[in-house]
Design brief:
Order of helices and strands: EHEHEHEHEHEEEHE
Shape: globular
Structural class: alpha/beta
Mean pLDDT: 92
Helix content: 40-55%
Oligomer: single chain
Largest sheet: 7 strands, parallel
Strand content: 15-25%
Distance between the termini: 49 Å
Low-confidence stretches: none
Strand order of the largest sheet: 3-2-1-4-5-6-9
Radius of gyration: 17 Å
């Protein structure tokens, strides 16, 4: 009997990650849920069922946490087929004015940039074995700079990471997709003010992820830029 494919998602406890986890589960995958929030992951694992779902507490800014995530996944399910490097957040001061928040800047870069790169570095050797699929969460602000915050620069970096990985993996059979949402109504915003534009739902982005993943093996959807109707930037 064919072994079920394994879909790993970082930032899986809320928002886009959680919505993607639900759709991947419905599509028949074994699903690995990774995030810092142990309680939220455990609740989602319980809801979906332990047979095909595994929760793993992981801070993507910590290399050893990510090594453990990959090792635990392989120990439980034996393979990796799809990895969605989705973890990220926005915090900190603008470049001019307001309070200095260097610690928040540093943690955002470690999570959004180093964390995504580490997910790629640690998972790609396993994805090569399955001719798998690597997806990464960028943003509309990885093309433009509409936010007064270092967050936009981290997403420009993610755009570069995605392109670099795709170029490097030519000839391996691996597919690479950059998912670039506009404004999405999720807990991501926290204390960050929303821009007051129309909003997408987390499920809208999850459907885009599953669209890319569900294509025939020879089709590589490189970039999905998705805004709500009426978002001006």
């Amino acid at each position: 009997m064919e072994q079920k494919k394994v879909f790993l998602i970082t930032g899986a406890s809320t928002g886009i990650g959680e919505a993607t986890a639900r759709m991947a589960y419905e599509a028949g995958y074994h699903v690995v849920l990774a995030a810092r929030s142990s309680a939220r992951l455990a609740a989602l694992e319980k809801e979906l069922g332990h047979d095909r779902v595994m929760a793993c507490t992981c801070d993507v800014s910590d290399w050893d946490d990510q090594k453990n995530l990959i090792a635990t996944t392989l120990e439980r399910f034996g393979r990796l087929d799809v990895v969605f490097a989705n973890a990220g957040f926005s915090k900190g001061s603008p470049f001019f004015g307001g309070e200095d928040k260097p610690d928040e800047w540093k943690q955002m870069v470690l999570t959004n940039v180093f964390g995504a790169a580490a997910t790629a570095r640690l998972s790609l050797p396993e994805l090569v074995k399955t001719a798998g699929h690597f997806l990464i969460s960028g943003s509309v602000v990885g093309h433009i700079t509409s936010t007064r915050n270092l967050y936009s620069a981290t997403k420009w970096a993610v755009t570069g990471i995605a392109q670099s990985i795709r170029n490097e993996m030519v000839g391996t059979g691996i597919r690479v997709t950059l998912i670039e949402p506009g404004v999405v109504d999720t807990p991501f915003w926290g204390s960050v003010p929303k821009p007051g534009t129309p909003e997408l739902k987390a499920d809208d982005i999850a459907r885009a992820v599953m669209y890319a993943v569900s294509q025939p093996p020879h089709v590589d959807v490189n970039d999905i830029l998705i805004r709500p109707v009426g978002q001006p930037h």
